[in-house]
Structures are given as C-alpha cells and as structure tokens.
Design the sequence.
C-alpha cells in the first residue's frame, strides 16, 4: 500500500531527470527557433535596407539632369568613389535649389559604417553596418572613368554603379547589392 | 492516483506552453515571410512598370521622324492645333504619350512628353524631355529609307564609323536592328566594317522631300560643283534628276541628287551625299564619302559592284550642316518619374 500511494526516491530522481532532459530539449529547441526568428528578421531587414537604398539611388539617378528649361544643368555635379552629387531642376524654374531635393548627394562613410543621402544640410542615413560601399562611373562605351572624376570628365559619365555590402550584428554572411543605372540626360 | 494526475497535469501545461510558444514563433515567422513576399511583389511590379515606361519612351521617341524641329508633335496627327489629338504621339500597346510645350524659352527646340504605362491595374507616369540631337543625321554612316536588299554589295564596301568619343553606326534604316544585323552578316563577304564602328540602328527614313525643298530654297550650285581636280569648294549642290559620274570628281559640303546616282568613274566627297533614288557603283568605279550617305528608294536602292568607302568625319558633316541645316533625330534629353 505504501508503494502504491507514493513514489520511491529512485522513481522521483528518474522522473525528475527525465523531466529536466525534456525541458532542456524543449528550451533548446525554442531557443534555436527564437534565434532563427531573430536572424530571419535581421536578414530581412538587412535585405530590405539594401534594396531600399538601391531603389532610392535608382530614382535619384533616373531624374538626375532633369532640365526642362534647357538652362544647362548637368546631371552629375560630383563623382567620387565614396559618393556623388546629383542635380535636377524638378520644379522647372531654371535653377537648382541647393536646399531641396533638386540637389542630392550620396556618401559612403566606412569609418562609421554608414551610407547616407544628403539633401541640403540634412543627412538621412539609409544604411547602417555598411562594410563595403563603392561608386564606379562608366562612359558611353562602358569604359571606366577614373574616380574622383574631374569636372572636365563629368559629362563623359553615362552610367553609375554602386556596390553595397551590409553586415549587421548577428549575421554571419553579408547582404550584398549592386546597381548599375544609366544617366538619362543626354550629353 | 492524485499524485499521478498532478504529474500528467504538469506535462499537459508544459506541452501546451511549448505549443503556444511554437505557434507564436511560427506566426511571427509566417508574418515575416508574408511581409517579405508582399514587398518582393511590389518591387517586382515597380521594376516592371519602370521597364515598361522606359521601353515606351524609347519606342515613342524612335517613332518621331528625323527633322528640324518638334513643333509638328504638338499639333498631333491632323497637324491642326486646337483639336483633340493635339500632342498625342503614336505609342505601343500598354502606354500612352502626349507632348506639350516645355517650360522656359523657346530655344533650344524641345517638348515635354508625358508617358503613362499600365500593367494590369497598376500605372506609372514619366515626363521625358525630348529634343533633337546636337549632331546632324541619325548617327550612322549609311542612312536608308527602306530596309536594305539582299545581294546589294557584290563589289567591295568599307564602313568605318570609328571615333574616339562617339562612334558612328554603320547603318540606319527603318527596320529592326536584328534584320540590319542579319543583312550585314549576309553581306560580310564583300562588306568590311571597322572594329570600332557602332552597331546598326533602327531609324525612320531620312526626310528627303523636305530636305530637297530646303536645298532648292537656298543658294545652290548644280553638278558643276563637283570638280575634277584640286580642292573642291564647300557648298550646296542640287542635281535635278539622275546623275552619272563617268570620270574623276571631287566635292565637299552637301550634294543632293534628286534622282539616282550612277558612278562609273570615281567620286570622292567630303560631307553628306543625298540621293533620293538608287545608288549604283559600277564595276571598277569607286565612291568615297567622308561624312554620310543618305539614300531614298530606287530599284535597286543600293548596288555596289565597284568600291564604296564610307568614313566617319564629324568635321565634314558639321561643315555640310553649316552650309544647310540638316535633319536630326529626336532623343530623350532627360526624364523624371512623376508617380
């Protein structure tokens, strides 16, 4: 009767050990799943960030050099391997307002691991944890125009390429994107 | 029994908690995937729309005939301002294009073209600034009014469009570039193209009738402008009817032959040679043009049984353009996505 009503010490120990083992396995499984979820979220965010940066640059490049009044504005104002500056007369008033979207610059700052888009004096960080960021410039025949591009050579640039690499904390492999976009303003 | 029930109850709670946690994780993961899929779908649609816009602009501008200004675009197909078709341009399926005056001064001649592209229910707009090119012509050595005919070259032809900055295309004609490539390949035994010459381009026919009228309206000489020796004077020459060159002739500027041109001797020209009919270079004869050769339609349009040499010479074309402004193709000078 005593044995049927209760458990022996051995039974308790075995039961406890089994319970702990099952609990440990479950905890590990849940932990792994949680980490996977966090990593997936980080990866998705990293991919989205890189993609959004590329799309933003694409739209800036597509409209660069917009000059409906034929005032003679150039698409590319500055071209370096770590950044560029673009101009577009978006409101068609014949002038480029330096404190508006008509004058946009992009900067890679690897020291602070950041890619930023500058409008006037405002700097908008587009991507953090940047481990690689380089602009390249191509002429009409696909040849590379050496950066920094001199003022005289700026009209030769017909396409811009950006290679971007991000490595946020928690990820072992970087997110990489590259964009090659032609300037649509005819020389 | 009570102890046993408590142990089973504990396991059930643990299992339910684990299940709930797993379900929460699964739901979060599913939500993440759903968001990413939606973003990817939106991006794919945006990319397709941007591609459709760019293709539409390229097609619309390619259909604009070469000419001197763009005023005709604003009046529409009926050429009458103030009607419903004002500014409406021919556009491929899935998009529309409407031209309107550009802001600012009248010069240089340019128009704004609003392009609207649709894919299913999605649509995007783009403004393109269209103007004529700075360089005369369509950027090709040989500009034809009709697709070239097979077997046109039985002699020797050399097309050299090499240039340090902007190489010229070997050939332009109102035909698909693939068809022009195929013609060049078919003629390759007799046709030599210098390595740095650009690929053939599709282009509307040269506006020969209007160019002829402009030549006649300007001060011009006749076939006597082609000299037999010495440096030819740069000028405008108009030949009404067919022209046959039986000896050695030199010329410079713009030669407009309102008929066919037959070369039995040797003709060397610096500038632009325009022939509204066909061109035939007889066996043993040669035609050398530093500049451009623009042809109408003849029977045949082009027959090279002797030697034809076309060299890219921007200065010669600029000189001809200075003698009489030449037609130019339309290009996109800029574009802006407007939503």
Sequence:
């Amino acid at each position: 009767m005593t044995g049927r009503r209760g458990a022996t010490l051995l039974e308790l120990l075995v039961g406890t050990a089994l319970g702990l083992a099952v609990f440990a396995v479950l905890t590990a499984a849940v932990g792994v799943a949680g980490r996977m979820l966090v990593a997936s979220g980080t990866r998705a965010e990293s991919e989205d960030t890189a993609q959004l940066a590329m799309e933003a640059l694409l739209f800036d490049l597509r409209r660069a050099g917009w000059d409906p009044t034929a005032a003679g504005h150039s698409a590319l104002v500055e071209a370096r391997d770590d950044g560029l500056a673009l101009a577009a007369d978006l409101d068609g008033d014949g002038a480029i307002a330096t404190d508006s979207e008509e004058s946009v610059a992009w900067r890679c700052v690897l020291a602070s691991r950041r890619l930023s888009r500058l409008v006037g004096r405002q700097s908008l960080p587009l991507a953090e944890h940047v481990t690689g960021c380089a602009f390249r410039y191509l002429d009409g025949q696909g040849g590379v125009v050496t950066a920094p591009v001199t003022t005289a050579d700026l009209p030769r640039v017909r396409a811009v390429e950006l290679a971007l690499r991000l490595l946020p904390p928690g990820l072992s492999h970087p997110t990489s994107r590259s964009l090659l976009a032609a300037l649509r303003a005819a020389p | 029994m009570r102890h046993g029930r408590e142990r089973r109850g504990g396991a059930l709670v643990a299992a339910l908690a684990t299940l709930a946690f797993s379900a929460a994780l699964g739901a979060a993961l599913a939500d993440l995937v759903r968001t990413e899929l939606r973003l990817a779908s939106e991006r794919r649609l945006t990319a397709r729309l941007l591609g459709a816009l760019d293709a539409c602009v390229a097609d619309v501008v390619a259909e604009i005939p070469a000419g001197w200004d763009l005023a005709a675009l604003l009046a529409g197909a009926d050429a009458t301002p103030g009607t419903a078709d004002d500014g409406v341009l021919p556009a491929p399926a899935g998009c529309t294009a409407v031209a309107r005056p550009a802001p600012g001064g009248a010069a240089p001649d340019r128009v704004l073209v609003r392009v609207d592209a649709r894919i299913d229910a999605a649509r995007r707009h783009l403004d393109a600034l269209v103007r004529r090119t700075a360089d005369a012509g369509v950027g090709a050595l040989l500009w034809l009014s009709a697709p070239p005919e097979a077997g046109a070259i039985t002699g020797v032809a050399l097309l050299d469009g090499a240039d340090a900055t902007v190489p010229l295309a070997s050939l332009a004609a109102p035909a698909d570039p693939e068809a022009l490539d195929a013609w060049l390949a078919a003629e390759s035994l007799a046709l030599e193209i210098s390595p740095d010459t650009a690929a053939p381009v599709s282009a509307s026919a040269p506006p020969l009738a209007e160019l002829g009228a402009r030549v006649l309206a300007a001060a011009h000489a006749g076939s006597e402008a082609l000299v037999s020796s010495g440096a030819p004077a740069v000028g405008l020459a108009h030949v009404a009817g067919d022209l046959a060159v039986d000896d050695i002739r030199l010329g410079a500027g713009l030669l407009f032959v309102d008929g066919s041109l037959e070369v039995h001797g040797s003709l060397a020209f610096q500038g632009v040679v325009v022939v509204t009919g066909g061109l035939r270079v007889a066996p043993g004869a040669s035609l050398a043009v530093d500049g451009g050769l623009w042809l109408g339609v003849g029977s045949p349009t082009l027959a090279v049984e002797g030697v034809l040499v076309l060299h890219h010479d921007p200065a010669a074309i600029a000189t001809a353009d200075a003698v009489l402004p030449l037609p130019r193709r339309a290009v996109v000078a800029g574009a802006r996505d407007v939503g």
In short: The radius of gyration of chain A is 28 Å. Chain A touches chain B through 38 residues (CB under 8 Å). DSSP finds two helices and nine strands in chain A.
